[in-house]
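Write out the 3D structure for:
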Amino acid sequence: MDWPKFTYHYDGGFAGFLTCVFTAYHQKEDPVCFLTPEDGRLSLWPEREVDADKDKARRVYRSLQPKLGAEGKRLVVQGFLTCLPDREVCLWQFLRLGYARGPGVTRDLTHPQVAALTQAVGHLTREAHQFKGFVRFSDQGGVLAGEIAPKNRALPLLGPHFAARYPGENLVLYDQTHREALFCQGGKWAILPLEDFSLSPAAGAELDFRALWRRFYHTISIEGRYNPRCRMTHMPKRYWRNMTEMQQETSTGLKGG
């Protein structure tokens, strides 16, 4: 199908993107660029404003598994959370291909869009898995709070894990990259936008626990097998600034070690 090419403006949310998919099929248009309010790029294509519509988005979402299979649906849902460049274009092209070919499309890793999306989702899931072990929480007046700086929007994958792991705690995990926070309470979780967040300086028992954790970390190390390059392979350096054992206490809080 040779549809006319358009630039779509939408709100940047998943429901908004699914509304774009509905609109594209309804109007028989090929969106080759998706712009959000924060995007400063200019377009040479005809432009269309697409307002998020829950009913239209729901119709597209319900079509994902019947048309693409469970794996295809997962690639679309998690693909939207990735840092893949022009992810909406890749997702749109994957959806057009999948709607035409069916669930078997996910096995065609020779196709550029399928391969790119599969690789991006793999990067997302690996990053989220690493954060399950690398996140460090501090007691902030009865609330366990922590910060991460992921490349992808990892919080939706971390929510079920931390809600189940700490069902009796009030927990906040802030994503510095995407300015949103995961809130867990009573085994339930939610993600909300949060422009600014900062941890209070540690004091009292929290300082003691941090000191004990650093002492344990250094005590179990084997001096004769010290290998910084190997450590960075298993614990990438970009995670260190938010990890207690890699930091030093100062009079105003923590600094990188």
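Helices lie at 14-27, 54-79, 87-101, 112-134, 155-165, 205-219, 228-234.
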